[in-house]
Amino acid sequence: MAKRGTCRCWVALLLLQAISLHFGLDFAKRVGMPRRPKSNPRARDRAASLLQVDSPESIPTTRSWNRAPAKSLRLPADKGCCSFRVKRHWRWRQMIEEPLGVYEFCNSTGPPRFHAIFASAPGEEEFLGCFRTPRDAAVAWDRRARRAEWPVLNFPVDGEEEGPTLLQDRFTFYRSKGFPYPPTSAAWRRNQLQDLLKLNVTGVWRSQWMLQLDDLQRSPGDELCWSFHPHSFAVSKTKGANKEMGPVKKPSALETFSSNAGLMKSLRTCLERCGDPACSPETLRGECKFHDDSMIFQGGGSWIANFPATVAAAIYQRFAPGGVVYDACAGWGGRLLGARLGGVRKYIACEPSSKTFAGLEELSNLLSPLEVELHRCGSEDFDVEEEVDVAFTSPPYFNTEWYSDERTQSHVRFPTVEAWRNGFLQPMLAKMVTALRPGGHLILSVTTRRAHRRSGLDLEGDVHQIVEELGLVQEPTLTMLKTGTDNGRKGRPIFVWKKAAG
């Protein structure tokens, strides 16, 4: 009987949890049950700071994404400290009024704990302590914000602004002004290019085969490229496939901004995650890419990325100094801009999207004396008329990003993985190899994620098989390291092959 009663209790708890999730209630918080959030790299980064400190006077510990920490801040769960951050599933009022910089964590030995985490800059976070109440954590965050001379605080005094007031003011401002597109004036663009030309692009090399930027999410040159492609903020990524309806899209940055919940979440993380008390347009654009339009702080947006221009420039300088290069999938212009920064003589590229092609043409007019030859077509149909020193690109991942619905798009023209592999990927690679001079290099930035494998796409494996059949010899792989790590296994591979001389 006792066992039967216990089973009934558990069934009742499970039913209550299902009801609470259906109506958007935070069940774990209400009944004191710890709940592990879904996998979220940003949540895991914050969850790694797990020191148990009760005093708000505790010495801050810096956790930087720009360099690898000396040792992990995580403590074993049996020490009683927090194990997992509770996912923020807030109502509108909570999204505005909950204290800034305070994160609730489950605790293995008692009530939840509250961590104070202060972002002094994008990718630079300070763990300020683990506290018994959210108010104590908020006070610790305020103390650090005052040292940084922030104008916004949880508990302001004379001349300081309260967090909810600033969030509501910025929300009203951006609602009245509309989406914060990058500047497009000729003077701004020229100044951006001049600043980029002063950079020492060889500084991205960390070793002979490893490259790294301080912040891959906001790499130098991105803003200049985005200013020529305002339509990029309306591009969506896919998050899986429905058997009846096909690919399911994530919200674009523009859709997240248009949603009240998405905009408020993005403004809040401008403060909490990026360390930008002004909620500047550049920071907000990035946060709208990261977030979806729900009331849950879990990412889920369409993070549309551009290949880092300085990384492309460093690769061009090594493999094609003053040479001719071919980019089969020009995309948002990162490798085009990199060709100018890297001293390339001539850049040849294909781009099938009409809007993106127009943006690339406009960008190319800024990059004199670089000679640019652009072709509005799919690279599976284009034959390069001259030999090139390097063929370097990052191909589309089938239908992961919906750049447009035009027939020239490879995933539209070839709607299944097998058709795309045979109709686009294989001929594109074959034409890149044919264009190479003897001794030239084929360089591809590709990887395969679990989501791709679930859809039957092994892009990395397919590329290796095709290139091997074309007779090229593989050289050591380059690795573009993730921000804040020196571990080559946690980077993006850039594969290099060499065409036989003669």
TrEMBL record:
<keyword id="KW-0808">Transferase</keyword>
<keyword id="KW-0949">S-adenosyl-L-methionine</keyword>
<dbReference type="GO" id="GO:0009307">
    <property type="term" value="P:DNA restriction-modification system"/>
</dbReference>
<protein>
    <recommendedName>
        <fullName>site-specific DNA-methyltransferase (cytosine-N(4)-specific)</fullName>
        <ecNumber>2.1.1.113</ecNumber>
    </recommendedName>
</protein>
<comment type="similarity">
    <text>Belongs to the N(4)/N(6)-methyltransferase family. N(4) subfamily.</text>
</comment>
<keyword id="KW-0732">Signal</keyword>
<dbReference type="GO" id="GO:0015667">
    <property type="term" value="F:site-specific DNA-methyltransferase (cytosine-N4-specific) activity"/>
</dbReference>
<keyword id="KW-0680">Restriction system</keyword>
<feature type="signal peptide">
    <location>
        <begin position="1"/>
        <end position="24"/>
    </location>
</feature>
<dbReference type="InterPro" id="IPR017985">
    <property type="entry name" value="MeTrfase_CN4_CS"/>
</dbReference>
<dbReference type="GO" id="GO:0003677">
    <property type="term" value="F:DNA binding"/>
</dbReference>
<dbReference type="InterPro" id="IPR029063">
    <property type="entry name" value="SAM-dependent_MTases_sf"/>
</dbReference>
<dbReference type="GO" id="GO:0032259">
    <property type="term" value="P:methylation"/>
</dbReference>
<keyword id="KW-0489">Methyltransferase</keyword>
